[in-house]
Write the structure tokens for this entry.
Amino acid sequence: MARTGMEFHRSGRVNWLRAAVLGANDGTISVASLVVGVTAAGITQENILVTGVAGLVAGAMSMAAGEYVSVQSQADTEAADLETEKRELDIEPENELTELTAIYVSRGLDQPLARLVAEKLMSRDALGAHARDELGITETLRARPIQAALSSAGSFVAGAVIPLITAWLAPAAMIVQVTYATALTVLILLGGTAAYAGGASVTKGALRVAFWGALAMGISAGVGKLFGAVAS
């Protein structure tokens, strides 16, 4: 939780929270849907577990790779912008001072005070001042691709393990029902926790995630039954 003076803000959680919740939700929904779908198709419990483990591994790798590529692209863009800004500060420092002053004027400071603030900030850390106030790049919100990839993969595995364990422990005749109920419970908890951490409505967050999870598992069960009937 980012802190400013005596106030607490949630903006510092945005990047890691998004990746963690997305990964856990995707892990639970993907593997639960896979388990429900193949169970409805009529395969054995052993094959269900093998399929679930394969889905867990493939999903975790996919989440990590996708998150890394996405956030790395953002990091590359930030690095290029910072390099351009650094070059401009070396070549035209006075123009950059004028530019920063104009930014502060647009935010409500009068011209003399805006100029003074810009001079003070640039004398201490010119690139940092322009990165923050001109480019919107801060240390708290800066792209971290490896952290995002590991967070997504780890949270995917954490979410996917639950329906796998459920399918392993549940009676063979009740795998679909038990997996469905367990996954929905987990999704409600995940949605509510994410909403609470982000300062949003816990009820809305929980129901939103549960709805889409239920829909995904329902469609998977329908497809599984359809293909199971065709195969038989």
User: Anything to note?
Assistant: Strands lie at 2-4, 7-9. The two ends are 55 Å apart (CA to CA). The longest helix spans residues 45-91. The chain has one domain: 2-231.
